[in-house]
Amino acid sequence: MEFRSLGTSEVKISPIIMGTWQAGKEMWVGIDDSETTKALRAAFEAGITTIDTAEYYGNGHSESVIGEALADVREQVVYATKVFSNHLKYEQVMEACHRSLKNLKTDYIDLYQIHWPAGSWGTEHVPIEETMGALNDLKAQGKIRAIGVSNFSRAQLEEATGYGRIDSLQPPYSLFWRQVEKDARPYCVQNNITILAYSPMAQGLLTGKFGPNHKFDRGDHRSKNKLFKPENYERVQQALGRLRPIAERNGISLGQLALAWIIAQPGNCAIAGARNAEQVRQNAKAGGILLSPADLDEIDHIGRSVTNHLDDNPVMWEF
To answer: pLDDT tens digits for 29-87?
Structure first.
């Protein structure tokens, strides 16, 4: 896996990034810390050297599991974590960052991101100037190496860049969820802002493992995903049927096809979650897959058979 530059920073990241929302356990079912630890070690061994997490994931639990699992190889990995939208005042950002540093057992964070814009999920509105002031100070102190934002629109991203360098945007982005292409992606490409696509396999849909009548366990947040609504889910299943022959002729899985398509887009990396070591190893293989221009075009067309029927709301869930 060839490393890529994170925006204009000195941070080098793997094109496939390990996502760890599930490691926090909250809003997920059947997650085991020991399996998460094995998955993190497998990621490192397979060349996935970038790990994405957040203070919100299990109230720091995800960060703590990562800190324990990778302490001995800290200098060889990249940690990306996030401050939630209820901690965006200057002092709150400072306190949140120091909690994350403690959880991750490190004295610096490679990429520190604003998880959601101020005011999201009923939180207080804090001027972006104040939040960016804290992030710039943390960067000057060497506590963080680069600044990123997550779930920001183009307008919000442009406002933030007025107060400091933003090196990454983390939006939901997959073959089946592509609102960012209409909004922030052109700005990111023009300004060398790396896109870290989360849910690049549409929370498992693009692996093909969910059949026509799938029901989630109680407590699994994916049951609220708009793509699982009946009118969308039927189109998803039809699209998967058209994607399977492309995966088969390339000798790869549907999930690997979805990841390879994402990282083939300009300035894109993909954040892929995993419950166990084998899933991580399969995800890592996508980092070396090169799809032909014809395949990329066909995949793009199939994806639009789903996304053309969605509205422009970038939030995937109806909580």
So the answer is: 888 899 999 999 999 999 999 999 999 999 999 999 999 999 999 999 999 999 999 99
First and final C-alpha spacing in the chain: 37
- Domains in the chain, CATH or no CATH each: 4-207+253-290 (3.20.20.100)
Catalytically active residues, by annotation: 57
Entry pTM: 0.94
| 3-class secondary structure, 263 | helix
3-state secondary structure of 256: helix
- pLDDT tens, residue by residue, 102-142: 999 999 999 999 999 999 999 999 999 999 999 999 999 99
Any idea which residue has 């709301």 for tokens? 313
Q: How many CB atoms lie within 10 A of CB 304?
A: 14
The alpha carbons of the chain give a radius of gyration, in whole angstroms, of 18
Q: Would you state the structure tokens that stand for residue 136, as one six-digit string?
A: 């710039």
Sign of CA pseudo-dihedral 93, 33, 204, 291: positive
Taking residue 245's Cβ as centre, other Cβ atoms within 10 Å add up to: 10
